[in-house]
Amino acid sequence: MEGGRRWLLARVGLALLAPLAVVLALVPLRAHALNTNLALVLVLVVLGAAVAGGRTAGVVAALSAALSYDFFLTVPYGSFTVERGDDIETTVLLGLIGLIAGELVERARRSQAAAIVRRRELDRVQRRAELAAGGERPSRLIALSADELTELLDLKTCRFVPTPPPEDLPIFTHGSISVPGVTSEDAPPGAAALPVRAHGRDLGHFLLVFPTASFGIGTSTDAKHAAVALADQLGMALLRYQRP
Fold first, then answer.
1. pLDDT for residue 207
2. Which of 49, 50, 176, 221 could join 102 in a cystine, given CB atoms 3.0 to 4.6 angstroms apart?
3. Would you tell me how many other CB atoms lie within 10 Å of the CB of residue 14?
4. What is the mean pLDDT of residues 122-141?
5. Mean pLDDT (whole number) for 68-84
6. DSSP-based helix, strand, coil % in the chain, nearest 5
């Protein structure tokens, strides 16, 4: 967590300083080149910051580029006052480009992350199906499912309990997390139950312990669906094993 925060600050700092450095390098050219051409150079810098650092870096780079362009490359120089309408439009456009580019990059990254989650879930489903079809012992399937749930939901701990979910524990479902009016005092903070069912039969539940006392409410929808699908698949495997 601390390393991620430092990396974010480093990206934001670079996004802040890079446009300023480029503008200072362009100062000798301001009397010989059109301002629109100089602005195009800054557009490339802003786009690069957005691609490298995402929405936050793109916004910071856009603001830095717009202010630096206004201060160093527009008449009167050394002032945030802009005399020409074209320069005002260029300054505003620099800011908008950074905002739009950063948002597009952020959406692309979210889509890529969601695709990775779905691909991993397909791999999990296939692996469990192969193990179940091959007659793998229930204890092995349960242990594998617990490990995958821990990774998928970023849990502190996860263990299987061969009894129906208790009424005083939050229930982890596809949609919202069902939290009872009175929760168990014996359960760890942030614990929730993921039922393992098959054809209407309760075969047990996973006790999920989240890092914070949120019961997994903030978990992404894709991860919730994947976790419930995992439990349902395990339930079918356990039910087949119990049948004579």
1. 93
2. 50
3. 16
4. 70
5. 77
6. 65, 10, 25
First-residue to last-residue Cα distance in the chain: 50
pLDDT tens digits for 26-54? 898 888 877 778 888 888 888 888 888 77
Cβ atoms of 193 and 217 closer than 8 Å: no
Q: What single letter denotes the amino acid at residue 154?
A: D
Residue spans of the domains in the chain: they are 2-111, 136-242
CATH number of 136-242: 3.30.450.40
Contact (CB, 8 A) for 67 and 82: no
The CB density around residue 129, as the number of other CB atoms within 10 Å, is 13
Contact by Cβ (8 Å): 101, 46: yes
CB 45 within 8 A of CB 22: yes
Q: Which residues contact 241 (CB under 8 A, 6 or more apart)?
A: 138
